[in-house]
Amino acid sequence: MAHPSNPKNRSEAEILGYRQALSKIHAKPESFSIDEKTILGLHSQIYSRTDIPSGQWKKRDNTIEERLSDGRWITRFVPVSARETPGYMKEFCIRFNRLRKEGLIASTGTGRGALWEKRGNAHNKRGNKRGNKGVRKI
Asked: Taking the mean position of all CA atoms in its chain, how far away is CA 73?
C-alpha cells in the first residue's frame, strides 16, 4: 500500500496510523519517552483515520476472539479489565523505563525495523534459539 490519502477500509486506516506512529518512534528512538501520555498519543495517531475512539483508555471490558472455519467463535485472549487498564499501563511504563535505564532494553537504532530489544539470546519467530547474538526482539 503506497501512502493513500483516503484509506479504503479500517485495516488500511490502521496501517497508515501505525506507519505514522512508527515513524515518530524511529525518528529518535534513544530520546523517545515511554509514559502513559505517549502511549495514548500513539493510540490516537494509530486510530486517527478510523471511527474508533482513540487517545483514551478503553471504557469497557473486551475479549479477543477468533472465528473458526466451521463458524464457531472461540476466545483467544481476555485482556485486563477496563477499570484496571490505567494502572497496568502505568506499571508497564515504570518497568519498561527501568529495564531501559539498566541497559536491559536497548534501541536498535534508526530506520526500518528499529525498535527496542531485550538483551539476551536471539530467537526466531517460533522461539527457537538462533545463537547468542546478544539481543532478542520484544
From this structure: 25
Are 132 and 119 in contact, with CB atoms under 8 Å apart?
no
Give dist(CA 24, CA 30) in Å, integer.
12
State the 10-residue block means of pLDDT for the chain, 138 residues long.
Answer: 71 92 84 90 93 93 97 97 98 94 74 53 46 42
DSSP, res 55: S
pLDDT digits (tens, 9 = 90+) for 83-98: 999 999 999 999 999 9
Task: Compute the distance between CA of residue 35 and CA of residue 25 in angstroms, rounded to an integer.
Answer: 13
Residue of 89, 98, 94 whose CA lies nearest to 118: 98
Is 116 in contact with 131 (CB distance < 8 Å)? no
What is the domain partition of the chain in residue ranges? Answer: 1-56, 59-102, 103-138
* Alpha carbons 130 and 127: distance in angstroms, whole number: 9
